[in-house]
Amino acid sequence: MASLRALSSTRVATFFYRKAPSSTQVLASCSIWCRRNLYGSLRRHNSMSAWVIDQYGTNEVLRVSDEIMMPTINLASEVLIKVEAASLNPLDIAMRGGYGATLLKLRRDPMSVMQNDTEFPLILGRDVSGVVVECGSQVTHFAPGDEVWAAVPPWKQGSLAQYLTLTEYEVSHKPKSLSHTEAASVPYVATTALSALVNAAGLCSDNCSDKRVLITGGSGGVGTFSIQLLKAWGAHVTVTCAGNAEGLVRGLGADKVVDYTAGDVAAQLEATEKYDVVLDNVGGVDTERWALGLLRPWSGAKYVTLVSPLLHSTDAAGLAEGLARAGCSLHSKALQNLLSRGVFYRWGFYAPDGPALDEVSALVDAGKLLPVVQACFPFSQVPQAFQRVEQGHARGKTVISVGGQRDPLSEQEEGCPAEDGDRHARAQTAHS
Ligand SMILES: NC(=O)C1=CN([C@@H]2O[C@H](COP(=O)(O)OP(=O)(O)OC[C@H]3O[C@@H](n4cnc5c(N)ncnc54)[C@H](OP(=O)(O)O)[C@@H]3O)[C@@H](O)[C@H]2O)C=CC1
Fold it and tell me: Does residue 76 come out as left (phi exceeding 0), alpha (psi in the -120 to 50 range) or beta?
């Protein structure tokens, strides 16, 4: 009864926002009513399918279950999303092994952690493309039936499940031109790239036309997105990647490509003009050293690395000491680089940002950004998808079709889209 009451109050709220309905809206309302009522019957069962882990470890800890508690809307600003597709990031592999557990525990929903005194069963998966099925009373931008995409914060239950809840701020309307499986390849890398390029490096669509940007590790998820975004903003983009990824990154718009497997990458880059921004997706002491040396000195140039020691540090040394160590390391490097050559040293992090995804959505629908899907797995093969990502050598993203499984709400099965060859071909054609 409690859940039916919750459904009714949301339905009333949604109804009063509507004006005189058109025939399309009437049809949409019918569809929403069906979803709601079918959803109500599902909620009575109170459980859903999800891939979970009950302890940290290797791929063996992944387990699929039909008995995972359905998420519910606990805040007025939350939306409940039916997941159609998810994707994997290197972070999922790391989190499966316990990476970040110390710091992430702090930000997890205190209610759910207190109930079990543990983060388990933990659902991984940081990207979602799906359909809104229920909205909290203060949600204004979304309604049941809306197709949405989002990057799921690592401190929340993930998208390798039939349903999840997010706040309205974290969610955005999915680009109309993409299927769910294509859309699921974008949000986490997009919000990470935007956070790094905009917040840490100070770039935006209005100030890039005279900027030279170097992207290390340009063939992966963040790299393939960043190349396209920076080209859409008018920057000159140089990319480091393996020789066999050159066609891909050039197809996405890279102006210059350096093959790091063909000799000393720093020596190859030293012959080029200096850079205003380096986005480092590779990390490591060596890369950091030569990349900083390629920045235009005394010009406010910025080095932003996505590979920071913060979470490793708190995992290894505990919260207080780990944060202190990481903070000291960041401040000493930042100071040293500022004083010795006038360049800024920064760490970039993913940040939840639905409004930023709205802008990405517009660029996608304008044909300026393409999803780069390397492989697509059905929901039943999540462990194989983890293996695929764990092997490395990503060329874009590995996606999981969640809606393709049998679901009480839908008899439809969505197939996986084209595999790497086709997707790369599409990316290259569109940008050539
Ligand atoms: N701080 C944060 O909040 C976030 C951090 N990250 C981190 O950023 C990094 C990039 O993420 P993502 O793009 O998703 O990772 P991917 O695994 O998708 O891509 C990494 C790419 O780098 C290439 N690569 C590996 N070594 C080198 C090298 N020495 N020089 C040039 N290219 C290389 C790989 O291909 P190949 O090996 O074939 O060359 C692969 O294409 C990861 O370390 C990730 O953990 C990502 C998101 C958020």
Answer: alpha
CA of 281 to the centre of ligand 1 (A): 5
In whole angstroms, how far apart are CA 316 and each of 56, 96, 311, 349?
15, 16, 8, 20
List every span in the chain annotated with CATH 3.90.180.10: 2-16+24-186+374-431
Reply yes or no on whether the pLDDT at 36 is more than 60: no
Backbone phi, psi, residue 225, to 5°: -70, -45
For ligand 1, atom 21, name the residue with the nearest CA.
Answer: 220
List, for residues 121-180, the tens digit of each pLDDT value: 999 999 999 999 999 999 999 999 999 999 999 999 999 999 999 999 999 999 999 999
Number of residues that this document lists for the chain: 432
Is the ipTM beyond the 0.85 threshold? yes
Does the CB atom of residue 396 touch ligand 1 within 6 A? no
Reported pTM: 0.87
Determine if ligand 1 sits within 6 Å of the CB of residue 351.
no
Q: Give the CA-trace dihedral at 293, 296, 300, 302, to 10 degrees.
A: -50
Residue 408, token pair as written in the block: 């009480």
**Separation of CA 112 and ligand 1 centre (Å):** 32
CATH topology assigned to domain 2-16+24-186+374-431: Quinone Oxidoreductase; Chain A, domain 1 (3.90.180)
Nearest CA to ligand 1 atom 9: 281
- How far is the C-alpha of 370 from the C-alpha of 363, rounded, in Å? 9
Question: How is residue 362 written in tokens?
Answer: 């517009």
Does any ligand 1 atom lie closer than 6 A to the CB of residue 219? yes
Secondary structure class of 45 (helix, strand, coil): helix
pLDDT at 415: 44
The predicted-structure confidence for 42-57, as pLDDT tens digits, reads as follows 544 689 999 999 999 9
Q: How far is the CA of 269 from the centre of ligand 1 (A)?
A: 19
Measure the CA–CA gap between 358 and 349, rounded to whole angstroms: 19
Q: Whose CA is nearest to atom 10 of ligand 1?
A: 281
Fold of the domain built from segment(s) 189-347: Rossmann fold (3.40.50)
CA distance 152 to 150: 6
DSSP 273: P
All CATH 3.40.50.720 domain ranges in the chain, comma separated:
189-347
State if residue 104 touches ligand 1 by the CB under 6 angstroms criterion: no
